[in-house]
User: What shape does this take?
Amino acid sequence: MLKFLMRLVTVLTATMIAGLLVIIALFVIRFSDSDAADLPQSLTLPDGAQATAFTQAAGWYAIVTQDDRILIYDRATGKLRQSVTIEPGN
Assistant: This one.
């Protein structure tokens, strides 16, 4: 009975190690995707604007500034497409 338990623990340990290796491999595959980190090389903000957040989509990227504006830039040209002022809430 003791030999059975030793084999069972060994098999379970090997299974856990294999599972951990699979999870690590999936993380490496997922995060090494070149499209996931397609960030602009540089961008020019209006005078006095300081970025607090960044998001992107297929054709544009947006920057939220400290003065409560959302600046939407065209991905292809890098030019400012639209500026949205966030009104304070009640």
Summary: The chain has a mean pLDDT of 87. DSSP finds one helix and four strands in the chain. The beta strands are 51-56, 60-65, 69-74, 80-85. Residues 49-90 form one domain.
